[in-house]
Design a protein that fits this description.
Structural class: alpha+beta
Number of strands: 10
Shape: globular
Order of helices and strands: HHEEEHEEEEHEEE
Largest sheet: 6 strands, mixed
Distance between the termini: 121 Å
Length: 227
Amino acid sequence: MSRNMFRVAMLLCITAALAVSLGCGKPVNVEKPIPVSTPQAQKPVEPPAKLPPPAPAEVESAIGRIFGNDLVLERTGQWFIVGDFNGDSYEDVAVIARVNASKLDDINGELANWTIQDADKFFVPPSGKRVVQLPHFDPVKLNKGEEILAIIHGYGPKGWRNPDARQAYLVRHAAASFAGLAPSISVKSIRAMRLPIQTEMIKEIRNNKKGFLFWTGGAYAWHPDES
């Protein structure tokens, strides 16, 4: 081998060695493990703050917001009562009123923003049965001057006072003397119905008989006090 060839070979060896050494010095990309975050304990949902007792003017304002002048308020004795009637933790209001004779078409109209029900016509599916035949109820129409119970369901912490509270019912056979509230689970016959939620029932005296007006999950119903 000539001296020049020997020099070329040595130069190639040195270049290769430098390339290997430089390659070994390059940082290696290593995929880092995904950090596992420790789940934070969730705070229990607190019930809405207790609202102050309603003033009659507040109740009148709420009824006017929903029904306009389609109803005539009784305004004698205890003509309204508040409670969580549908079990959503927000305060509702129930008001005794009469149908304004000149507004009957508006009240019974198909485009009305409330639901008309009869507390004596309701259905609670029996527990333990998968197939149940639903009874047929004709649409309820109110009469001129008829005494009914107007109910506004609350929305949000302000309950029925909230301007966005718009879900309302007019219930026939439900206007009676109020006798307070009772938990739905406190009455054996109501517990046996296995209602989907726990509510506050309105204790009433209707035609000299004690009973309860309660929410079935989709309608208001009257049940006699069997105690």
